[in-house]
Design goal:
The protein is an all-alpha fold. It has a domain of 44 residues. Helices cover 68% and strands 0% of the residues. The chain has two helices and no strands. The longest helix has 44 residues.
Amino acid sequence: MKESQANSVFKQGKKTPSDRADQATIASRAIMEQEKVAREKKTARLRQLRLEKEAAEEAANPAAAPKEKRKAQKRK
């Protein structure tokens, strides 16, 4: 077998700029998707912690009964 034929089997051909752009697009979309998932997990975790904290504060400090409003006196 000729050496040129053996090397051509394992060599990749030149990539076009559009192929490189497609690879970059795919990679960037994958990264953005991972960041989105991480952000949504963090948001859900923080929301749960905030709700638990608010519930604990409300249980510790029950709201005082609202004062009844006095009726305004009519002018004579």
